[in-house]
Amino acid sequence: QVQLVESGGGLVQAGGSLRLSCAASGRTFSGYVMGWFRQAPGKEREFVTAIRWNGGITYYANSVKGRFTISRDNAKNTVYLQMNSLKPEGTAVYYCVVDPVYSGTSAKAYDYWGQGTQVTVSS
């Protein structure tokens, strides 16, 4: 079965940086899209970013463009999220997702989810 394990969350001051990682296992992920969602307290889960298999096509929410960068290492079945210039509104649980195709920005479209990692940005 598919397992996604996130790491790298923590507490950071506004303006700081964090790097999240997500290691996938349980099947061959050739051709799969990998990405990140986040969920803040009292809010719905929202799309952050996604990357296609070859890494050449990426997608970002407008709220993180220019500050967050997604990348992947296919040999390690791992996706990374470099988050710079973090803002307090970025406080959320960050979830890793994988899917055979890019399914847009709706959380309902993604089948495989990690357990999440907490990111807290203090002001």
How would you explain this protein's 3D organization?
The protein has strands at residues 3-7, 10-13, 18-25, 33-39, 46-51, 58-60, 68-73, 78-83, 92-99, 112-113, 117-122. It is globular. Strand 4 and strand 5 (46-51) form a beta hairpin. Helices cover 0% and strands 50% of the residues. The chain is mainly beta and 123 residues long. The mean pLDDT is 95. The strands form 2 sheets. Strands 2, 4, 5, 6, 9, 10 and 11 form a 7-stranded mixed β-sheet that branches.
Short summary:
The protein has 123 residues and is mostly beta strands. 0% of the residues lie in helices and 50% in strands. Strands 2, 4, 5, 6, 9, 10 and 11 form a seven-stranded mixed beta sheet that branches. The protein has a four-stranded antiparallel beta sheet with strand order 1-3-8-7, with no helix packed on it.
Query: SS-based structural class?
Result: mainly beta
Q: What is the percent of helical residues?
A: under 10%
Order of helices and strands: EEEEEEEEEEE
How much β-strand is present in the residues? over 45%
Average predicted local confidence, pLDDT: 95
Enumerate the spans where pLDDT stays under 50 for 5 or more consecutive residues: none
**Tally of alpha and pi helices:** 0
Distance between the termini: 40 Å
The gyration radius over C-alpha positions equals 13 Å
Q: Sheet with the most strands?
A: 7 strands, mixed
Q: Could you give the count of β-strands?
A: 11
Overall body shape: globular
